[in-house]
Design brief:
Length: 264
């Protein structure tokens, strides 16, 4: 199923589902992200959970049992829910602060009879539900350093005792400042997107515009080390496992921590 992303992508008309207002990536307007992400995703240009597909499937298979409650927290589209299905998850909840990715998931679920329930909520304010498993990809990477522990604490509060949070976190460091692509990296990203589009039916100029818009906004707050992740973890969470993996990245080869937190 992980290889069948394009089939699901073609079933979604973005114009029918776009309902952006405020998002985790941009509190003022996240439409620049959701208007362009899926196009770049189909070209293999943007960070996505399939880069870590084997990690997510293995961890979900280890911790998931029928009847356990699982939440996909924060998602750009249906990629992570599909990985959950691949791992044997029969039912799951999907939560985001923006309605657009939830609308996308609703469309895919309805067409394929997936048992996905979506709801809007801001994890920064807490979620009034309890889960055995919470999963997402590169979620904490998007929050500024003074917000990460707050978010992680809220995630811990949403877990049942013994529950796990399965995620990835980008590994890099810029002296405590945001990591932003250089102008050279931005131009390289745009060029590669256009080259990739030539193997598809996508319009080259539309892809160029999507790539330019996306990369001009992109900003990350990666973690320096495993020790820094340990320090970020709250009193109610422990680190069950933390491994480093190198993936293709958006502008360069990029390291990610593949982490499993567990509630005490």
């Amino acid at each position: 199923m992980i290889e069948n992303y394009e089939k699901y992508f073609n079933a979604v008309n973005l114009a029918d589902v776009l309902e952006c207002a405020s998002g985790y990536l941009d509190s003022k307007d996240c439409s620049w992200y959701h208007r362009n992400w899926m196009t770049l995703r189909i070209l293999g240009m943007v960070s996505n959970p399939f880069w870590h597909g084997s990690f997510f499937v293995e961890q979900l298979k280890e911790y998931y049992q029928k009847g356990k409650k699982i939440l996909v927290l924060g998602t750009a589209d249906f990629s992570m829910p599909l990985i959950c299905v691949e791992a044997g998850v029969e039912r799951l909840d999907i939560c985001d602060i923006c309605k657009t990715p939830l609308n996308i998931c609703d469309k895919v679920a309805l067409k394929n009879q997936f048992k996905w329930e979506t709801f809007v909520s801001d994890i920064c304010l807490g979620i009034d539900r309890k889960y055995d498993i919470i999963v997402n990809d590169a979620f904490l990477t998007r929050f500024q350093y003074d917000k990460k522990t707050i978010v992680l604490n809220s995630i811990g509060q949403a877990l049942s005792p013994g529950g796990v949070y399965i995620t990835t976190i980008r590994n890099d460091w810029n002296g405590g400042k945001a990591v932003i692509p250089t102008e050279e990296q931005k131009q390289g990203f745009i060029t590669q997107a256009v080259i990739a589009s030539q193997r598809t039916k996508l319009d080259e100029e539309a892809v160029r515009e999507s790539a330019s818009t996306y990369i001009s906004h992109m900003i990350s707050y990666p973690m320096e080390s495993q020790e820094s992740i340990k320090q970020m973890a709250t009193d109610i969470l422990t680190i069950k496992s933390c491994k480093l993996k190198t993936v293709v990245g958006e502008c360069k080869l990029t390291n990610y921590f593949q982490v499993v937190f567990q509630k005490k």
